[in-house]
Design goal:
This protein is mainly alpha-helical. 67% of the residues lie in helices and 0% in strands. It is extended and about 45 Å long.
């Protein structure tokens, strides 16, 4: 099962790389999911920055969770990280 997930992830990376390497950074998205309502990102540059930010944010969630379960005395670090995440991540 894990191998299938990683295979799918690698396939999606290849597809994304094909778009990213052939499109100018100021190209607007060709389509946009309806689930976002009227919210849109204007171009490929903004989409890439958003994906990087969201990936970092969610990876941070995982890291904080791992630290909290492995090192319970790290609560003060978690509160500092939470403040950073609330200010800069996940559309808060």
């Amino acid at each position: 099962m894990a191998a299938a997930v990683f295979d799918r992830y690698r396939l999606e990376i290849e597809k994304a790389n094909a778009v990213i390497t052939t499109m100018p950074l100021d190209a607007p998205p060709k389509q946009w999911p309806d689930l976002f309502g009227k919210w849109r990102l204007p171009d490929l540059r903004a989409v890439l920055l958003h994906v990087i930010t969201e990936t970092a944010c969610h990876a941070g969630h995982l890291g904080r969770r791992a630290r909290a379960t492995r090192w319970p005395n790290a609560a003060h670090r978690l509160s500092e990280a939470r403040g950073f995440a609330e200010k800069y991540c996940c559309n808060r």
